Amino acid sequence: MGSHGTSGFSKVFIGSNTEKIVRLADSPVLTIKNEIDDFVINNMVFASNFYEESYPVFEKIKFFTDIYRFHIYLLKVITPKEFEPTPVSQKLVNSFIKLNINRNQKLIVAIFYQSKV
User: Fold this and answer.
1) The 107-113 sheet, strands edge to edge
2) pLDDT digits (tens, 9 = 90+) for 72-85
3) 73: exposed, middle or buried (Cβ count in 10 Å: 0-12, 13-18, 19+)
4) What average pLDDT does range 24-37 have in this prediction?
C-alpha cells in the first residue's frame, strides 16, 4: 500500500489514510513510502510471542512467501515486564515451527532478551 498522503500535506512517516488502515487492519499491511522501480522482497521478520493466536496471522504471511520466496526471520522479544524462561520461549517457538513452517523454507530464529525497559 502506498503511503505518500493524499491531501497535499505529506505526513512525516505515512499518510493519514494509510495510518488508519494499518492500525485497524486484521491482516498484515505492507506500506511503501516511496515508489520503488525494482521492488523485491528478500527477507521478512515475523515478530511474535508465538502463542497459538499468532498462527492465523502467520498463515496470511505464508501466502506472500509462496509469491515472493523470501527468507523468514522469526523474532521473539522478551522484556523484564513480560519475562518468560528460555525453555518456555524455546518450546513455544519450536511448536510454532513444527506446525507452521515448511521444511523447504529457509528460517532464522532469534530470541532477544531486553534487559531494561
Assistant:
1) 43-47, 71-78, 107-113
2) 888 888 888 888 88
3) middle
4) 76
